[in-house]
Amino acid sequence: MRHHRALLIFSVLTWVLSKGLNVHFGRTVGGGTGFYLTIIFRDILPILGGGALIVSVLKVLIFEKTDRPLQTLMQNYRRLFFDMSRVTNIIVVMAAMILGISGFSELKPLIHFIKPYSWDVTFMEIDRVLHFGRDPWTLLTPIFGSASATRTINFVYNFWFYVIFIFWIMAAWSKPNMPNLIASNDAAPSKLTNWSRQFTLAFIMTWVIGGFLLAILFSSMGPAFYGLIDPSNNPFAAQMASLHAMDAESSLWAIKTQGLLQDSYLNPASGGPEGISAMPSVHNATAALYVFAGYKIKRYIGHIMVAFMIAILIGSVHLGWHYAIDGYVGIALAWACWWGAGRILKRV
What we know:
With about 350 residues, the chain is mainly α. It has one domain (about 5-345). Helices cover about 75% and strands about 0% of the residues. It has 16 helices and no strands. It has helices at about 5-25, 35-65, 70-80, 85-105, 110-115, 120-130, 135-145, 145-175, 180, 190-215, 225-230, 235-250, 255-265, 280-295, 300-320, 325-345. Helix 4 (about 85-105) packs across helix 8, helix 4 packs parallel to helix 10 and helix 8 crosses helix 10. The relative contact order is 0.13.
């Protein structure tokens, strides 16, 4: 806990803030958490756990070529699951991350209560200035406008959720540099411990600062919901009509999720996922954190995450979730939080 005290403090403060504001606005405390925790424990973690087991078995069978593969597999897992420094690290890190995200999930739906959406027109106009007088989605449609390309982008965009937990688990599974726990603050942690602490703290900072505080300051809904703001003058009507046509042929995840969010916004008692926010893009900011952490771990992981970040940026615009400027600001925010987390950890 001392090793991760900065992360714990930030997560606890986020959780306390979420409870206080929900009580202030007369909302049900805990109402925004259950939906996301269900997805984490029912869908994402079982799939990742099963995938990790399959990879472990294949590794033993193909690369280790042992005469007793089951015994070797059990020995490998025993070294991991019975290493108490890893086990306690996992408990603390995962508890802190889930606590912080639980708080965030209850803060995000409050954005339009605190400040009504008012920046969409401005961000739409900024996009046009930055992209030669055109809406960015019109530049992407000739390349990614087919149904197959759109579905591929949508798959990558949603796979972002799984990558979150891959990095969470990698960070939590990193064996702490135990001598550093009792050394002075000047003692340099190991490379692995350094990236894991910096990533988890920067992650929570990015989501709370970007996804709540800045989201209030620049309260906006995004292209998919522009019709709620100005239905008679919607520059994204053709884009969304095309996406809805694809969804009518075969379910498109983005359209289904956008529909759930819109229903919850118009009818808060519906019980679906809540919280519409465009600026800055937490999706893009988180993808940028993958890049920074990836290069700290292995160069090739960083290269892969760069490609993934570009795909997320394209998807955020093509699928109507964000203005392009949302993604650019989100990436810059991620760098600032990554740098800030590093500075904080040098002091604590």
